[in-house]
Structure formats: C-alpha cells, structure tokens
Task: structure prediction
Amino acid sequence: MTNFTLTRRGVIAGLGAALATPGIPSAFAQGAPIKVGVLHSLSGTMAISETALRDTVLMMVEDQNRKGGLLGRRLQAVVVDPASNWPLFAEKARELLQVAKVDVTFGCWTSVSRKSVLPVFEELKGLLFYPVQYEGEEQSPNIFYTGAAPNQQAIPALDYLLGPDGGSAKRIALLGTDYVYPRTTNRILRNYLVSKGFAAADIMEEYTPFGHSDWQGIVSSVKRFASAGKKTAIVSTINGDANVPFYRELGNQGIKAEDIPSVAFSVGEEELAGIDARPLVGHLAAWNYFMSVKSQVNDQFIAMWRAYIKNPRRVTNDPMEATYTGFKMWAQAVTASGTTNVADVTKAVIGQKVAAPSGYIEEMGANHHLSKPVMIGEIQANGQFNIVYKTPGAVPAENWSPYIPENANRRR
Result:
C-alpha cells in the first residue's frame, strides 16, 4: 500500500488557499485544480537548505491563486518530505505522479536525489523543475534545469581565484561532499587546472560524507598544503548542514580570506544565517543571484518573500530565485499552450523569458537549461554578500563540459 502524505502547510497552500487567503478569488472557473508537486527535504541533513525552497513554491502558488490561478483554475500544492533519503526521493516522486497526479513538480537539491527521480519522471512522463547548480553531464526531456551548469558557476569561480582579483592562486584544494555533484564538478575543475598548466601536486582533493561535523583534521591538512609557499585557495562543494561546522573550523584555525580564500558553490544567505559570519568576511561564494542584487524585480521578490513568510529577517538565496524563475516560466508556458499537458507545456517552456530577480532577462534554452548571469560575492559580517564580479549578460548553459573527454563527440 502506498503511504501518501501531505504536510499541513501543503494542504493550506493547496486545498484551502483560495478561501483562506485575503485577496484570492473565492470562485474559479469549473475544472479540477492544477496540482503542483513539491519534492524537497524537510528533515535530515538537507533540510537546512531545502525547507526554504518548499516555502518558495508555496509562496508562488499562493501568489498565482491571488491573481486568478491559471486557465481559470486554482493551483493546489502537494507537499511530500523525502527526508534527505535518496531512494525515498524516487518513491515520493512516484507518489506525486501516480497517486496525487500532479501536473508539475518543483524539487530536489542534491544531484543524487535528482538522479534518483529522473527515471521516474521519464517513465511516467512527468515534469520536474530542478532549481540548484549541478555538475552538468545530463539532459532529460522531463526536467528543466534552472540552476547553474559548470560554465555558469564552477569554471568562472575558478578563473576568479586564478586571476589577480582573486589572489592569483597557484594551489587549489577541492573539498566536497562524497557524491556525484562534487566528484564530477571536481573532475571538470581538475582537468581545467591541468589544461592551465597545474601539476598534480598542486591540486588537493578531499571528500567527506553528508552531515560531516569533525573538520579539524581536514582544515589542518589544507593549512599544511598551503605551507608550500604557493598561494592557495579552497573550492568548496560541501553540501547541507556540514557547511556550518566547516566554516566554524576555518574560523577556529584562523584561516582568513587574505591568506587562504575559499569559494563555495553551495553556501548562500540561508546557510550563513545559522552561523557567526564575522570570521568568514572576505571568503567567497559563486552563484547566479545574491540577495544584495540591486534591481527592482529583486526588491519585489524580497518584499514578496518577507510578506509571505511573515518574518522581516528571513533571507533569499540563489536556489529560491531559481525556483521563482522556473515557476514563472512554467506558468507562462501553461498560459501560452492553454493546457497543463506535459508534452505541450514542455514545448512551450523552451524560449520563455523572465525578468529575474538577478536583474537579468533569463531565457530557457532548447537544451532545457537556463541562461544565467555569473556572480561572485564576498561574505560580509551580516551574512550578506558584496558582489565583486558579475558577467555583463546572461550566459547560456553548457551542460556537456568540454573538460570531460568523453563529451568530445557531443560537441562536434
């Protein structure tokens, strides 16, 4: 027997949204509600990052219902908790598609969770919007990737560290959580560094399990690695709540940005909200959006979020912005196609453009990947980022990296 559950907030955002929220029309045209699946970990090691994405989808559902829904029908959020359990993601995806019969799903953070659900969405002809940066090396007709591919985050971040503005690093420590995203990303970065003339001895690579908490030995190893007399930098693909003790240990061992700068690919405003950021001032993160972006759309996004969450101190971050942008594109595609049929909506998503909170016009490519700006920010004492670099325009995604040798035939 299938165990299908909804969170209380999911029920409110779905079944009761039209009646419970002031300003939302109390009556819609005839027709079943449009069901929006939410597939994010609300417990376990990834809850620190994914809970805000659940709330972002619920905010967008509420906002769309306030505007009259889509096609004259209200939206109903269906929330499940895969609990940072990768096989459970596939089970919950199947429940959303077969039991709840959702029209679209927004979800996953880690690549292992996405790879767990991918065959389910392809088998059952579902539609998933995936909002987090990842390692590339994938393209599915049933997934739209609204986070960054390596050429939209990892490679530009490494270029920054190697350049004069980033300290002209000559040694790189690649630290990651032990799963597909960090290992594949670091394979790309290692090959890129070799193409730049780096020797194997000048590249350190270390992996730790999800939820790792004892960073003393690894941080000490980085300090020894940096003692060779060459400028050293850290590239972090550490995910989830392991970032909190990692950054704490950097502070404990006195690693300052001017000595050994670090750039993170999975640490944003939400993660920094849980720690004292003062010892980390000057360390870097590479994303496609920061809360500190100056744009009218971002001001509206932040105000919308704080009004929904009813907490003026809650922050926004990159995967939340990617969720917002993906939701807008999906809604535009439903309106344009006049249906929620997955095949028709999928065709209509390609080419959709959204004025994103990043301050750029972002467009969905035929490869199901989003064009995005690249930004690098320095951590500030208040947990925000000072943007020190950004591309002049949105960058199209290269989901098949030229630094993976077996991709040569794909690029011909």
